[in-house]
Amino acid sequence: MVLLDKLIAQGKNPRGFVGRVMIRIMNRAHSAITTWAFNKIVIRENSPVLDIGCGGGENIHRLTKMTARSDVYGVDYSQQAVETSILRNKEEVQSGRVTVCRGEVSALPFESEKFGTVTAVQTHYFWPDLPGDVKEIYRVLGKGGTLLIAAEIYKINYHMNNHTEDQQVKQLFLDAGFRAVEIHQNKSWRCYVGLK
Ligand SMILES: C[S@@+](CC[C@H](N)C(=O)[O-])C[C@H]1O[C@@H](n2cnc3c(N)ncnc32)[C@H](O)[C@@H]1O
């Protein structure tokens, strides 16, 4: 496997020492896109927030600062990511404000309608079945809840064979049940916001 393939595999499912280093780098590298994307939504107070594909846990930390009264959850199928996210949010995990667990976006380990807001940054291009996965997120969102998916455009085009066009993604959100979809874009980044 060439080096690039190895780095992509680590981005998709961080493991071991290299994975730990990678997700710590991602915490810094994804800061600007996360700031841009999180500004597109209003985090609902008094309603739990979920970050899917939470990686190194920086977005969880940021979400705890954006809301005073909502608990924040993180989920990732990488054990390394879960451990790093817990370390990054140690005090909030100890106080019970933050919960991080291992799980797959296609079968989220949460009851239906639990969350007011769900975020996913730089991860959806790795997901196994985007239409099914968006439906699964719709299931765990409460009525009036918001889903935000954000990613770099070149990564969307590099990793995805389908669902790279705005109209396709909009339709996919509507098919999942979302009543409204917004798409924001600049020259580098794109985000989809679905309102349940
Ligand atoms: C490129 S990292 C981004 C991490 C973080 N969201 C950020 O912005 O820095 C992608 C993360 O998505 C996770 N991931 C990829 N596919 C997933 C899936 N099907 N279910 C859950 N997590 C997944 C990976 O384990 C990895 O931690």
TrEMBL record:
Q: Which domain of life is it from?
A: Bacteria
Q: Name one GO molecular function term.
A: sterol 24-C-methyltransferase activity
- Please tell me whether the keyword Ligase is annotated for this protein: no
Which is a GO BP term held by this UniProt record?
A: sterol biosynthetic process
Start and end of every Methyltransferase type domain?
50-149
Keyword terms, alphabetized = Methyltransferase, Transferase
Question: SUPFAM superfamilies, from UniProt?
Answer: S-adenosyl-L-methionine-dependent methyltransferases
Mind telling me what this protein is named? SAM-dependent methyltransferase
